[in-house]
Prior knowledge:
Layout: E1 11-19, E2 24-26, E3 29-31, E4 39-49, E5 52-67, H1 83-88, E6 89-107, E7 110-119, E8 127-137, E9 140-149, E10 154-162
Antiparallel strand pairs: 1-4, 2-3, 4-5, 5-6, 6-7, 7-10, 8-9
Amino acid sequence: MAADATRPGPLHGWLKLRVVARARRQDGTETRRSWDQTNAVGGGIAWASGPWQATLAALYHTAGPRRRSGSSTRPCRTPSSSLAAATRCATTTTRSLDARVSRDFELSRGAVTVFAEVTNALDRGNQCCTDYAYRYEAGRLALDREYRHWLPVVPSVGVLWKY
């Protein structure tokens, strides 16, 4: 069999970098959205030899500012005119490390791939969402927030039959 010039060697990798500077202008003040992923770096390394494959991938990104619990419900604004206002705003980060190992088996009718993988291998408590609830307290409306996180370490094994 002739070597395929487009196929990488047994070891290859990738890297991505994204830097985005955007904000919404409202009343003369710039406000970042809470879902912004301003800076992101991702990369990985993959190895393949015969029927075996292994992949390790990492991701890091910052998210837009969110108000910390107990502070005002107004959006965080940048740049902040006071240190007190700046400390009430938190920029969250997401970090993840994922790994996968698989092996292919050729069959008379198709092929079977057996794999094991782990998502969020370092068990980072990456914040994803905020749940809001309103309640009355002493005749006034109060806002409660609960911060949720993406999944913890998720190991999985599987079999894929291609026919």
